[in-house]
Specification:
The complex is a heterodimer of chains A (about 110) and B (about 110). Chain A is an all-beta fold and about 110 residues long. Chain A has no helices and eleven strands. In chain A, strand 6 and strand 7 form a beta hairpin. Chain A is globular, with a radius of gyration of 13 Å. In chain B, strands 2, 4, 5, 6, 9, 10 and 11 form a seven-stranded mixed sheet that branches. With about 110 residues, chain B is mainly β. Classes of the chains: A mainly beta (about 110), B mainly beta (about 110). Chains A and B meet through strand 5 and strand 9 of A and strand 5 and strand 10 of B.
Amino acid sequence: GQQVMQIPQYQHVQEGEDFTTYCNSSTTLSNIQWYKQRPGGHPVFLIQLVKSGEVKKQKRLTFQFGEAKKNSSLHITATQTTDVGTYFCAGPRIQGAQKLVFGQGTRLTINP
Amino acid sequence: DGGITQSPKYLFRKEGQNVTLSCEQNLNHDAMYWYRQDPGQGLRLIYYSQIVNDFQKGDIAEGYSVSREKKESFPLTVTSAQKNPTAFYLCASSPLRGEKLFFGSGTQLSVL
């Protein structure tokens, strides 16, 4: 079945270093969504990418959607302790866009 | 404030017991979802509903049941048939198919 894989599973950085997580789908996606879950919290929507090759920025966060619409990345520049959490990508299933398939997530920890 | 309310925050189940997790939303969203989250894994879809009195199985529906008698409410019952129920359960809603998900704060279910 359709799979969404995320790497790395864990990432520990020093505060101020950059961070990138990658998301790969076994099938072409109509769109991809990114969520952040703080420790002990619930996932919160960050952004949705729709177009092939799309790049969107939110302050220090840069999101990219691959040309083939099968991969995506989230890059954080100069991490801060507030960036700690698990970042998930999610894409809609082929049958029924309302069913999202989530990646396993990348857990980011930061050494202040 | 508009949002999704899940209760209780923590729940303990005895062997052979059915337990019900509550999810209420006042966002006027049509679609509602239940996800299960295990440590180190992504979110897996249990059930979802697009309209009142209608719901569909997700990827891991066995051992769970739901109802959607009101637009605002989507309770999840974890039955005794679910042999490994310990997990973090997240309820979510969205206004339309393919739209971003709004999550509740979750219920941590543990087995006594």
